[in-house]
Amino acid sequence: MACQMPRRMRLTARLLSASPVELVVEPSVKVATLKLLIEEAAQLPPCRVVRCLVWGVAELPEEASLQELGFDGSDELLALVSDVLVGDFEFCIPVYSGCPCCGFNFEIQSVQFCADGTALIQAEPWEGTRRFLYKLGELRGAERELEFEEAADVTPPAVYAGTLYVSTTDPMYRRVKIPELGIDVEDVQYLKQQDRTALQQKLEFFFSHPHFNHSRDWVMQNVCNPSAVTTYDAEILEAFWWSWPREKQNQEAEELAETYDAIHPKKIRKQKIPEQKKPRRRVRGHRPRPRD
Length: 292
Description:
Blueprint (H helix, E strand, L loop, with lengths): L8 E7 L5 E5 L5 H12 L5 E8 L2 E2 L6 H4 L7 E7 L3 E7 L13 E7 L4 E5 L7 E11 L2 E8 L8 E8 L7 E5 L4 E5 H6 L4 H10 L8 H7 L10 H29 L31
Parallel strand pairs: 1-5
Antiparallel strand pairs: 1-2, 3-4, 3-5, 6-7, 6-13, 7-8, 8-9, 9-10, 10-11, 11-12, 12-13
Helix pairs in contact: 4-6
């Protein structure tokens, strides 16, 4: 007997803050994928996501399919929507000394906010990340309260308060502070506009190093982002790859200019000391004639 293909099902997802959404999906669709389909159908803004789906009184696990859960579309699903903060944040102060490859002498902090309500935090360069569950709190003008609960096997879990600052004049500028963790980071998208991301500063340090004589293939393979959290490496590396000829040309032009500006040793002439006039000797008994 031939295997029967699964039929498509029609389902309704009810959002508390919007009209119900009707979808036609395969029974094999995963809950995680269904959440994305509901967000698209409901035209939710980027700052809002479907946090979970509820069938009856049970929350549906994301890795399970509707068929595995026994859902046939006859009942409504409840989609719980919440605000989220998504994006990468960084703080970096390069120390222009020592070897430019490793970046251990950089001061760097990184925070990555994910749509699933988690945040990955790195407090030191090349340090492992810590995973937190974050919640958005009350909005007060340009500031919004944040709460971070460490996702570790500790009872009770550590909870830290933070603040999200959003500029009223430049929406690209966002800043996150978590005082108890010593975190003070800025939006990577804004830092890219200012050429101040950790990777950009590290590459600039590498290009300006006095012993810099490697090919750009070697640089791109050996210079990596000192942040273990942020994920813009490919974009920045591509930009520097294509700007490499200009960087080398500028460097060679500066070296050539310094060579021609220097005075050649053979052209250095001693300055002549002006001769002083000798005083006239007076002859004894001789008096100068008075002038008329």
